[in-house]
Structure formats: structure tokens, C-alpha cells
Amino acid sequence: MGSAAPVLPVEPIGSAGSAGSIGSVGSVGSVGSAGSVGEFRGDGRSGEAGAYAGASRGPGVVDGNPPAEVRAGMGGDHRGAGAVHSAPVGAARDDLLGGIGDWGPTATPVGTFQLVPVRVERDLPLVTRWMNDPAVSAFWELAGPESVTEEHLNRQLDGDGRSVPCIGLLEDTPVSYWEIYRADLDHLARHYPARPHDTGIHLLIGGVAHRGHGLGSALLRAVADLVLDRRPACARVVAEPDLRNIPSVSAFLSGGFRFSAEVELPGKRAALMMRDRALRDLM
After folding, report:
1. Is 129 helix (H, G, I), strand (E, B) or coil?
2. 277 near 236, Cβ under 8 Å?
3. Residue 197 phi, psi (nearest 5)
4. Cα 233 to Cα 204: distance, rounded to the nearest angstrom
5. Do 244 and 45 contact (CB within 8 A), yes or no?
6. 240: helix, coil or strand?
7. Is the pTM higher than 0.70?
8. Degrees (nearest 5) of the Cα angle 62, 63, 66?
9. How far apart are CA 184 and CA 192, in angstroms?
10. CB count, 10 Å around CB of 261?
11. Which pLDDT band, with edges at 50, 70 and 90, does 207 fall under?
């Protein structure tokens, strides 16, 4: 796994930009080092965990180096894949992923985990701080003031529901940022034999103190299996980390993904990683 390796987040594939676009390709946005771990205390800031009190009450509780191909649609913006899928004004805000806010918590070897859809008014300062981590910004390219991150989040939240930004709570503490998106409706689908309802993920681990200790791999496996459990029509969870990002590729492999192919994407050569429903009990 190379825990001593540099933190090289798996960049999301840029933003889709316009309503008619398929969307942006997403990789597990910055996974940091292989199985990188986030801080368990809300990135070291007191009080952050309290903002999510009650978020893990269970199902039914709704809480609140991207390829150039996608960048082109956003005038050079190449921040997050799967992330920026814009839609016409007035588009439905219900997601196309089966209601992630209703998925509820799941048990993992590292504790109870839950995806909570982002609420800008609550999450913007935290996500902005994470995006300004040099190891993260090198791939997500969202460093800067809150307005930069806010624009990135709002493109998803105001879109057609094909991409949902989430905070990952571990034992009710925010430790990670995720983008869960419809890979079959994404630019990535132009670069591999996509199947209906293929689902992509991006991830960044928020803190730096525990990266390299296996949390990333554990959460990748947990979230991929959560997708498969909550989305019966989805047969595969996909991601496309940069081939040069050995720690991230290793994290996927340790998290139950298999290497499918090398794919040439705008801006990078990627490792197409998959976790298959049919093989999940074997990996």
C-alpha cells in the first residue's frame, strides 16, 4: 500500500458544465495515500461533529486531474468529476441515485459510517478548508476562497441529480467528502463500455493526520457496497484514478476494486477501477 508515499488524491474528472452534457468523469477524488485516513475530530476543529447530530438516525432521515474534455465544458474548469453536472434552471433537485439522503448508516470495520448530502450553509467552511489542503488542491484544483468551493457544490446541487456531493460521517464526525454520480451519464461513459446505472465515486479524506493507515480503503469498500445495496439496478461501481497515483490505485485494490483497463482521458491516463456486484463476495 505504500503508506509512506506522497498523498496524491484521485482527481475527479472535471465538470460537465452544461445541461446537455453527459457529465464529468469521476474518480475517487482525492483518496490521499493508499487507504488514507481522515482526522476523526472533524479535521481538528471542535464543534464540527455536533453540526451533524442526528444525521445517522437511519434510513428515511434526509439530512441535510480532471480530464480536459470536461474542463472544456466549463471554460477550463477541471475540478471535480461526477461533481459538476449542471442542468437547466428549474431542473428537478431529486437525485438520480435513489435518494442518497435516505441510505442511512452502515457498519464498517472502522466504525459506523454515513453519507450525508451536502448543505452549503452548514458544510461550506469545512469543505473549503479540505479543498485548500495542497495534496487535495493539486488534483481537485479548488483551492481558494469559499466562493470557489461554493460554485463547485452548487453546480451539483442545482443540477439534475446525477451527481450528489456528500459529507462522510464516521461515528458522527465529518472525515471525508464524496461525490456519488451516475457514471453512465458521465463523460467517462465515452471511454469505456458503460452499462446502465454504473455509478462513480470521488473521495477525499479531510484530515492529514491519519492518512496512510487504511481508512481510505475501508471507506471505499463500504461506500461501494452501500451503492450496490441501495441501488439494485447498479451492477458496478467505477472510478478512474491517475495511473501515476500509486497510493490511490492501491487503496482501490485494497478496497475491493479490480483493475479493468487503462483509459486515455483528457488530461491523464487513468486506471479504470471497478467493484462488481457479481464479484463483491470474492474481493
Report:
1. helix
2. yes
3. 75, 10
4. 26
5. no
6. coil
7. yes
8. 105
9. 10
10. 13
11. confident
Reduced to 3 states (helix: H, G, I; strand: E, B; else coil), residue 270 is: strand
DSSP-derived secondary structure letter, 261: E
SS (H, E, C) 51-111: HHCCCCCCCCCCCCCCCHHHHHHCCCCCCCCCCECCCCCCCCCCCCCCCHHHCCCEEECCE
Q: Which cell numbers hold the place of 193?
A: 463500455
Strand 173-182 to strand 199-205: parallel, antiparallel, or no bridges (unpaired)?
antiparallel
Q: Which amino acid is located at 170 in the chain?
A: L
Q: What is the mean pLDDT of residues 243-247?
A: 83
- Which of 101, 82, 117, 103 is closest to 232 using CA atoms? 103
* CA angle (250 as vertex; 246, 252 as ends), nearest 5: 120
Strands ordered across the beta sheet of 106-108? 106-108, 111-117, 163-170, 173-182, 199-205, 236-239, 268-276, 258-265
Angle between helices 120-131 and 146-157 (to 10 degrees): 120
- Beta-carbon contacts of 192 under 8 Å, excluding residues fewer than 6 positions away, are 238, 260, 261, 263, 272
The pLDDT of residue 211: 75
Q: Which residue has the cell 452534457?
A: 21
153 CB-near residues (< 8 Å, 6+ apart): 118, 120, 123, 124, 127, 165
Of 122, 109, 124, 116, nearest in space to 37 by CA:
109
pLDDT tens for residues 11-64? 555 433 322 222 333 334 443 333 333 333 344 454 566 778 666 544 333 333
- 202 touches 24 (CB < 8 A): no
